[in-house]
Amino acid sequence: MKTATIRREDVELLAPAGDWDCMRSAVANGADAIFFGVEKFNARARANNFRMDELPEIMAFLHSYGVKGFLTFNILIFENELTDAKELIDACVDAGVDAVIVQDLGLVKMIREISPDFPIHGSTQMTITSPEAVEFTKPFDMERVVLGRENNLKQIQKIGEQAKLPMEVFVHGALCVSYSGQCLTSEMWGGRSANRGECAQACRLPYDLMVDGEHKPMGDVAYLLSPKDLAAIDLMPELIEAGVTSFKIEGRLKTPEYVANVVSKYRKAIDRYFDGDNTPPSKEEVRELQQSFSRGFTHGFLDGTNNKQLVDGTFPKSRGVYLGRVDQVLRDGVVLKLDAPVKRGDGIVFDAGDPTKKEEGGRVYDVRRKGVKLEGEAEEGWIVDVVPGRSDVDLRRVKVGDKVWKTNDPALDKRLRQSFEIEKPYRIFPVNVKVIGSPGQPLSTWWTDVQKGTTVRVNSEMELDIAQKRPMTHELLEEQFGRLGGTVFQLEELDVNLHGDVIIPMRELNNIRRQAVEQLAGERPKPPVYVKRAVEVYGDAVKPAAPVARGHAELTALCRSLPQVEAALEAGVGMIYADFEFIKQFPAAVEAVRAAGRKIALATPRIHMPGENGYHNNILRLQ
To answer: Domain-by-domain residue ranges, the chain?
Structure first.
């Protein structure tokens, strides 16, 4: 059921960029907006990232193609970093960045002090998963919220209907096994906080399963916490109708070929929907997505919770496209029935079910069918001999039953690279031209960039003469002003109003065209202008409050169990925070603290999903 009529121009495809090639690739393949980080303060510390001093260049490039740029500022900020944080926000405001994606509410408050109208997006690390969470962000005038990846389609629709704030949702890429913004495993084990952009990806490691203290053998299933990759390309109609306005692709650590592949596929899926075509993505499109990067595809939580579909458990890294299982090992190759096409030059790997050990893999040297070498591609369903390069694969280590994966397709990579490496404008924008002229007057022209909405006026330097032979015509002007190859413009409409038979040298028409294009192109990258106030930040030298009078200091204890509460009371603690696993123990804790004449606060859950207010009502009842 549609929440409202959503127009094509309301929907945004948001792409990742870890470097300039990825940014060009995203623009060339149809992204409406790009998210990227600079050298500090972002949740992908391992990405190449851009430099803060590149912000004006980045935004000029994006805006010249009508693409928005969002800066990721999606980590927690420490007090001694506030000066640096303010410097980066100032740079974003000055460069005309279209929004910052923020996790830390303290930073949100600081941004609002600096600028009341600079756009802020609430990051997925804010764990915004309910209408109430969206309402909580509204006093900060946030432009949109990025929902947690744990919401299903019904919840997303409910949040949209109740909260009425633009929603951004992840549709493709890596998934976390934990709730967005709530994973502390990497921090606890290795001191590398995911909320500081340093996640060590503990979920991608092998684990043993212990049941009631006993080790449970799991065969080749060792990666118990490693989710598959999200791929919601076939759910785009449902997501659009649920009210999602921004579709986010994960992958600032990925290659420009990956960006080209995923962005172009999702661009087609969105355009298909608005063209009234409900055809799902083809098998070939899905395979190409898998080829760029895939740990196996899943809808994540969009269909609801299904843990068996979320985690495969047999491998933690990208496998590519499944080709089939080894039926027979030959002297120089293997026999298998193909689940997907393969050709000479493709990369393959043999999967014996234990990725902790060295796997055999390399390039396909030859493909034979019924003893005959194939020049082209072997198709799905064929039984073929796949011959790998002898120096690549030790066939003595390959066994019947091993899975075979296509890890690389050079032809696909070449096609994807061409989409952003060819020297041509990435996008073309329509221009409307109006022409007025009379004998003895300059020729006046108005050029309008339809997408940007800007108009420039250019007059000829010479005056119009009365034509003796061939006067200027609509066709002539259309031909001269339509010569816009190599620019980002294309003539769409020409309105000509000439009085009498007039003429002007051809060089004048060419000069008008060049000047108009130059002026219009100069208008495109101009940044938006935001209100900016002078704000003083004290960094680690925050102004101290008035000194506390002696005898007024108070000790507070955080307690995880009832015995801890009792021990804290015995020790004379005046204020207790109770954060229990089981809510049923709260009344006893409140009673004990009140009987001792002390104060108590109860911790709410970290996660709040739509309709889950019973827990909070129980807390409120305890007063």
So the answer is: 8-182+228-309, 319-421, 429-523, 556-621
Question: If we measure between CA atoms, which residue out of 260, 242, 243 comes closest to residue 251?
Answer: 260
b (16+ CB within 10 A) / e for 254-284: bbbbbbbbbbbbbbbbbebbeeeeeeebeee
The CATH class given to the 319-421 domain equals mainly beta
Q: Which amino acid does the sequence have at 569?
A: L
Q: Using one digit for the tens of pLDDT, what is the confidence trace for 361-389?
A: 999 999 999 999 999 999 999 999 999 98
- Give the Cα-Cα-Cα angle 73, 78, 84 (nearest 5 degrees): 60
Q: Count Cα neighbours of 100 within 13 Å in the Cβ-side half-sphere.
A: 33
Question: What is the CATH class of 8-182+228-309?
Answer: alpha beta
Pairing of β 372-373 and β 383-388: unpaired
Q: Left (φ > 0), alpha (ψ -120 to 50) or beta: where does 324 sit?
A: left
- Under 8 Å CB-to-CB from 23, ≥6 apart: which residues? 17, 34, 36, 58, 61, 62
Q: Please identify which residue in the block is written with the tokens 């109770």.
A: 578
pTM over 0.85: yes
CA atoms within 13 A on the CB side of 86: 18
* CA–CA distance, 431 with 518 (Å, rounded to integer): 13
